[in-house]
Amino acid sequence: GERQAISKNHLAQQPTSTLADDEQKKTRTKGFKNNPLAKLFLGLTIWALFQYIRLKIEPYIFGRVINSCDEDQLLFSQTPGLLEQNKLNSIQAALENHPLLGRNAFVNFDLFGDTEGLVVRFNKDGIKKIQQNNDLQHCSPFVDQVIRNDANAWALRVLVFHPEQDLEGEAIKIHVSSSLGLPDKNSFFPYQVDQLWVSVPPGIAGGHLNIWHNRENPANTPGAEAAAALAPVENTLTTLRGDAVTSVSNYKATAGKLITLILEQYKLEEQYYAKAVEFEVVQVSDEDHEYIIKAGGEEKMEYADNQEF
User: Polar residues compositional bias: what residue ranges (predicted)?
Assistant: First the structure.
């Protein structure tokens, strides 16, 4: 009997829901629904949480851009008269009608337009193969002159441009140089890019190398003005920080080809360096848009239409 009395007293002490309480709850709920500031705050909180997850986690799932440039590194500098004239003449003669030149597809066919070229990828053990390769040894004076001792992987590119009637267009569209082609989900920017104007037609109009800071990439900031528009000058080296954004304008000339040599220089961490190829030549053919990789004397054909490499 005593226990029953306690239980009844306990129940009697419990708060009971009243119409007034229900009305207060409805008012609070209705108040939130009708409060734009509260809804905005909740929306911003959810958005911020989503962005945090995207920025912190997504790169490790889908890959990220690995940039080894120094924060205070110069955007570009120039060195006129890089090579002795006899060495420059040798490179010009070799590249004028090089047997390995093919339609350019370093990233995709649209980006590099009607240019011709090839890519040579190599690591520290492959440097000597540039000198030993009959098709590439003429490039050795350029490579020897600009190669960095603290880099450990490279992409040597040949670009041959053709004159156009429309100077308003671009021979090479806006891009960041990245031709190393590591088999990895991440993308890699070189530490430094060295570009030598090997051959410049007399009386050329156009053909400027346009340069932007990466943070002012016109692909992300439409209308961003280039930091520099450098006219091509034969035997002049332009050294760029590896994350620089560049394009090359169309040019007109009555005779001769506009030819450039480019060396992308990478500083790879050990885990990524292990994926760098010792030596390979990438060539794109005109007829079937296939590229040939020549590595260690072997040839491998792979379909490359609109493929990044």
Answer: 1-19
In this prediction the pTM is: 0.74
Nearest of 102, 133, 130, 129 to residue 118 by alpha carbon: 102
Average pLDDT of the segment spanning 46-70: 72
The tally of domains found in the chain comes to: 2
Same domain as 275, residue 247: yes
Residues spanned by the domain of 210: 66-293
β strands within 184-268, DSSP E: 187-189, 192-199, 205-206, 209-212, 228-230, 237-241, 245-249, 251-252, 258-266
* Average pLDDT, integer, range 57-71: 76
User: Is 1 a member of any domain?
Assistant: no
CB-based contact 138:97 (threshold 8 Å): no
User: Which residues, in sequence order, are bridge partners of residue 167?
Assistant: none
179 belongs to a structural domain: yes
End-to-end C-alpha distance for the chain, whole angstroms = 88
pLDDT grade for 44, boundaries at 50, 70 and 90: confident
Q: Is residue 289 part of a domain?
A: yes
